[in-house]
Design a protein that fits this description.
The complex is a heterodimer of chains A (193) and B (212). Chain A is mostly helical and 193 residues long. Helices cover 69% and strands 0% of the residues of chain A. Classes of the chains: A mainly alpha (193), B mainly alpha (212).
Chain lengths: 193, 212
């Protein structure tokens, strides 16, 4: 029965699922968790320099908020914008405590997470990866947030503007300069392009 | 700068998927307003490789599977609370209070107080010992030989006893016969009862006694 409910819920929008969560629907909550938990966790890891413990804590807090205070969600708005706004704000709070922040590469080395090298990309992906994380470490909090929301979470500009509390035009111009800057710094890893 | 605000969102999407030569004519025309072909391809390669790195790392870093079970249980617990434990909106609580207050006010206004006498009834059982006096009657028969003597005989016998010192019994009382008047002689005037004065006495009248 629960499995059947879950199947039915997969076709519903995030906003419709949140309405069901308000009414106490456990399958609706589980569907939302499946949709967002992994993506949010990846986002939090990159925002927090791959601090798995903090990312896990914040992920739990966000979903507890959905359970305990579902009325906080404005049904007239996009669920993804709401949940990423919460996540971004939590990351900003963590950024204020700079002593807990460590580099992404350092964190990855500690966690033992290493991406396998790709044999068919035409360049050394591992070297590219190392340089990418170095540049991300050097980015400001807002630039990193912008980068991840657009190119990791693949959110539209309008949604990013809502999350960051910026006009859409400002988001576009910042994104334009960020893409140009980072791609220029990493062009040596794309000799054939 | 103002022109940058008008960059179509679609352009950033295309960078993550295609190279410049893969774009159609409309897309190439749109792209060339903001990037050169080389800039677009460099940006596209960078974005596509970045996304590949992110995907590879994310596959290795997944949230703790126990978290899903914990949150699911929390969700279940929250909504299985008893009715009295559930939170209700403030307006519902306020409405309930107003209804209760209205009911109290109505009962005070439109109901007359009734004087009630409180009667307390109780039953007390007293145990009393009743003394029953039972009178036992018995009859005792005493057998005694009856001696028929007239009062005059009794007087005579008492006188003989005094005179002679001999106690007379019933057997020897016949020595002194008594003079017993018959009932008929009571009508004789000389035996009549005395009246108020001796002068009225028939004997005095007969024998001529005088008054002293």
């Amino acid at each position: 029965m629960t499995h059947q409910n879950n199947d039915q819920h997969t076709e519903l929008s995030d906003e419709a699922l949140m309405l069901l969560v308000r009414e106490g629907s456990e399958p609706a909550f589980n569907t939302l968790y499946k949709r967002y938990a992994a993506r949010l966790y990846a986002f939090l890891l990159k925002m927090l320099g791959y601090d798995t413990e903090k990312a896990q804590d914040i992920l739990q807090d966000i979903f507890l908020l959905i359970i305990e205070r579902p009325e906080k969600f404005d049904a007239g708005k996009k669920f993804s914008a709401w949940i990423y706004t919460i996540a971004a704000n939590r990351c900003r709070n963590e950024y204020r405590n700079q002593s807990t922040r460590q580099g992404i590469l350092q964190s990855l080395a500690v966690s033992g997470a290493t991406a396998p090298a790709s044999a068919d990309t035409g360049h050394d992906l591992q070297r590219f990866r190392k340089r990418l994380y170095e540049l991300m470490d050097a980015l400001s909090e807002e630039s990193r947030l912008l980068w991840l929301l657009r190119f990791q979470q693949e959110l539209p500009v309008s949604r990013i503007a809502q999350i960051m509390g910026l006009p859409a035009g400002t988001v576009k111009s910042r994104l334009y300069y960020l893409v140009k800057e980072l791609s220029g710094k990493l062009k040596i890893y794309h000799p054939y392009k | 700068m103002d022109q940058l605000h008008e960059i179509p969102d679609e352009l950033f999407g295309l960078m993550g998927k295609k190279k410049f030569h893969e774009l159609d004519e409309r897309q190439q025309e749109m792209t060339l307003q903001w990037f050169t072909e080389e800039e677009f391809d460099r940006a596209a390669s960078f974005i596509q490789d970045t996304e590949a790195v992110f995907r590879a790392d994310e596959a290795l870093l997944v949230p703790d599977p126990a978290l899903a079970a914990t949150l699911s249980a929390r969700m279940r617990d929250k909504h299985s609370k008893p009715l009295l434990m559930r939170m209700i909106p403030v307006w519902q609580a306020a409405a309930a209070l107003m209804i209760i207050a209205g009911a109290v006010w109505w009962s005070v206004q439109y109901t007359t107080p009734q004087e009630k006498t409180l009667a307390i009834r109780d039953t007390v059982y007293l145990t009393q010992e009743v003394a029953v006096t039972q009178t036992v009657y018995d009859t005792i028969y005493i057998t005694q030989a009856a001696t028929k003597q007239t009062p005059a005989q009794q007087i005579t016998r008492q006188k003989q006893q005094q005179d002679t010192g001999i106690s007379y019994t019933a057997g020897n009382t016949g020595a002194y016969p008594l003079h017993i008047l018959e009932v008929s002689s009571l009508t004789d005037p000389q035996n009549a009862a005395a009246v108020n004065s001796m002068s009225d006495d028939p004997l005095v009248q007969r024998f001529g006694f005088r008054r002293f």
